[in-house]
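**Backbone geometry record:**
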Amino acid sequence: MATMRNTNIQANKIVEGMRAESAKILADEKQPMNIEARLAALMVELIGNGTAEVTRAARPTESASKLAKPVRLCQFKVSLDGIRPQIWRRLVVPRDIPLEMFHELLQITMGWTNSHLHKFVTAEGTSFRLVTDDGFDGLEEDEADEDGATLDMLIAATGDSFQYTYDFGDDWTHTVKLEKSLPFYAVPMAPICLDGANAVPPEDCGGVSGYRDLRKVLANPKH
């Protein structure tokens, strides 16, 4: 299974020309994309060394010595549930990264388009999500506001895991497992994607079951 090194994958979309892309979808091939610039921009924003937006056009050449900060790091394996071969990424991030920023990092490295709502769910069942400004989307008893929450509120020790769900319609659920903790100097360019395999499914394809049906359709030359 091919792996990627500091590259990102680009989410496939159901668009004109899907037939031409079917071979790639069926083979779970990666769609390479320049991830370095987007992660560099996220890092700049995270440590307060600028106000760069998280875009592919952001500058990727900031010095690691300028951006380094004595914070504890965590190495996570992020896996998309319910699909084989497994779709996964290995990330190193500051332990106290804001959840809102960790969400951006997951969107970038997994290859989603950040077009839907999301939530984090701890092993104990507490959900962290954003509350809408209109006041009509209040929190339930087992929910907490993502605004102001940090990653270390979801994990305590090596081996701990939590869930990240993207798109409440398709319900793409990811398992995020803490593999190990690292000193801040171990990975100077954190946050970073170290490894991973396979592209995420097309957005709005109907979740795990819809993706399976889509692959069957694309594999049938009569369609």
Q: What stands out?
A: The chain has a mean pLDDT of 76.
